[in-house]
Amino acid sequence: MNNEIVQYLRKEMFPNIWCPGCGIGIVLGAMLRAIHSIGWEKDEIVMVSGIGCSSRITGYVDFNTMNTTHGRALPYATGIKMANPSLKVITVMGDGDCAAIGGNHFIHAARRNIDITAIIINNMIYGMTGGQYSPLTPTGKIGTTAPYGNIDQCFDLTSLAVSAGASYVARSSVFDVIQATRFIKKAFLKKGFSVVEIISDCPISFGRINRMRTPAEMLEWIKSITVPKNKWEKLTPEEKEGKLPTGEFLDINIPEYSKNYQEVCIRAQQGGKDK
Amino acid sequence: MSEKKRLEKILQGNEACVEGAILAGVRFFAGYPITPASEIAEGMAQRLPALGGVFMQMEDEIASMAATIGASLAGAKAMTASSGPGICLKQENIGFAAICEVPCVIVNSQRGGPSTGLPTKPAQADVMQARWGTHGDHPMIVLSPSDVTEVLNITIKAINFSEKYRTPVMLMLDEVISHMREKVIIPPKEEIEIIDRKKPTVVKEDFLPYKADDDLVPPMANFGSGYRYHVTGLVHNEKGYPTSNNKEIDYLIRRLTNKVELNKKDIILEEKYLLDDARVAIVAYGSVARAAERTVKLAREKGIKVGLLKLITLWPFSDDTISQLASQVDLIVVPEMNLGQMVREVQRAAEGKCRVISYSRVDGELINPLEILAKIEEEGK
Ligand code: SF4
Question: Which ipTM did the prediction report?
Fold first, then answer.
């Protein structure tokens, strides 16, 4: 690993718990490169996670870090941001963590447009518990709790974030780490709720059960299902089946929550509700 | 003299709770609407912005608890309030606050349960949940004021205990105390003891976030203060990192409970009323303690030597006082607005040295002084 990002790691925590070939390390590298190129101080960064393989990221990075309860990274992060708005607050979540048990928090963090970045590592499965299907497992794929094929529709977190009120929304994958890093950096710098979903590989809990035995096969598959947004728009509905658009879906500047709250304080201090 | 500065106000219990919290330094509140606790959120929404504090109405009870803990880690004195159904939802994150040692106060304005139960009627049926609601062995400080003035003062205590012992503290009100209006004397600031969490004094390189002092409480660094560390709900070592080392696991789990148990003397708040010559003791808490005080007077008018032990701190439990009391009296009566929850603790602590009986009411009505008296007279026959 190159030096510029090693300085952000807690070396005593290594080796890490992830399986060989897991995509989470790629996302971690992308996040650290983005932080390095922005030049943030370690002391001003708070990284908050929930529960799952991806949530273990917070243990390995030398910031103010928190590994909270399943699905709840965003409300914890909200409390931190509001108590000290000068902090740079980042959450890292998995697909089950963010889209299932934490789905309501995700919607409302976006609705408030609070200045927090949500990095969602979407490996389309509950990895840590052994491969149960998640809300982002593609229809038809196999999970340990969907042994005959998943019949659930999987939903689109980026569309959800756009309609719920976020400021920046993008999707990339571990196959295109340069693009992922670029999106993550933009998300970190956005004043408002920013979302980057990164399609990642879980060769152990998703790959093996879905006949992609090696990390390389999984990456090939990710490459085959991800389509740049401009190409995606030209596809027929049949061609879109089983594929995911990548790119930036939203990049706007709208009033941010902790800033708006300052105005509430000023109004209260002036003694009137209507000033 | 500060008499002049003593401010008198007619306050509802929930308003007194807001007043006490603000006096104690609470500057972050996250909540969700629920009867009979909503006035606490409304009061905070009104008051905190002018003080530069933060009020947030979250998307649900779980988020309210999480945001409260997050804010505390970022340095704010933080509180949330709810009632039974909401307290149920908060439990997982209360456990997180306990194992990560994050100061915070959770107010439970008790209503009848289970489930939606009796939203507008009082109960005391959550006192065991308050102690054991979240899973695993964990510490819990639980306080229960019995009138509106006490709500204000005990709210300040609750905040202080949470900061001093780095642990969640539950403040148990009930629908009646929450909504009852009484004259409250608001103490001047300089007369109020305020306790802040202790901060690390070591250089950053030597900082071990979960290394406890002699009082078993580790100094706490706020996020952003330059002491970077990891907070995890996994069992962790002194460095704050997850551990599977048996010794480290055992040490943490015991220390968490012991930091409260070994500081019982400081934490247990109780009041004795006419117990010196008593042959019968009433052990009561919350709004029932108030009725019981009246029972004592009525009984004494009739020549029956009754006294009252009012528990303000429910957990940790007053084992020692109860044990002494049991050696002195013939009978202990425990009136509660539940089917007999704390009475079992009293029986345990009394160790068979006297008779201990329960008087229960679960119909949504307060227990009145005459019913307790009737119970005493009936048992005395
Ligand atoms: S189970 Fe999957 S997601 Fe979890 S560490 Fe292994 S490969 Fe990565």
Answer: 0.97
